[in-house]
Design goal:
two-stranded antiparallel sheet, flat, alpha/beta, Rossmann fold
């Protein structure tokens, strides 16, 4: 099981304009109340940790993967600054325990974008700075496969990435 979230989880659940996908700020058991629905909202880490533990309890092996980056060349200057969800995913992936692994998908795609450069990376984002073209999606998938195959340590997918993969970074 691969769990990867991030782009749409930001915002503030405390306001009356809660978008219904926001998480509570923090990294542990902090709780917020949606200003729109009155529902209890937990942190990104709690949601991911609970999901990973539930899957492991059912016999699954879980990889927590950090989100892919937005266009890191937007504006013509490369930036590899990671959003908070990348750190959250790493904390959960490395902290839950047996049966859970972490893959830094953000770093893998970042290396590929840096290698591609400004113009080629910008071509992968035809509509906005978040959503890639099909070619951008293939690059992100190849970066994930490369990170799994060449990553440090073992994870349950490492031995399943067979043959030659397209190296993108």
């Amino acid at each position: 099981m691969v769990i990867e979230f991030g782009h749409n989880d930001g915002g503030s659940p405390n306001s009356a304009s809660d978008n219904g996908r926001s998480d509570c700020p923090g990294t542990g058991d902090e709780v917020c109340i949606s200003g729109k629905t009155g529902e209890t909202v937990y942190t990104f880490n709690k949601y991911i940790t609970d999901a990973a533990k539930a899957y492991v309890a059912k016999g699954a092996k879980v990889i927590v993967s950090s989100q892919t980056p937005n266009n890191q060349w937007e504006g013509g200057v490369y930036s590899d600054a990671a959003p908070r969800f990348v750190g959250y995913a790493k904390t959960v992936g490395e902290g839950v325990g047996e049966g859970v692994w972490y893959v830094d998908h953000f770093a893998a795609v970042s290396k590929a974008f840096k290698k591609l450069g400004d113009a080629a990376t910008n071509e992968l984002y035809p509509k906005d700075h978040t959503h890639t073209s099909p070619e951008g999606a293939r690059l992100a998938a190849n970066a994930f496969a490369q990170a799994v195959k060449q990553g440090e340590g073992d994870n349950p997918l490492k031995g399943l990435v067979r043959g030659d993969i397209e190296l993108v970074y």
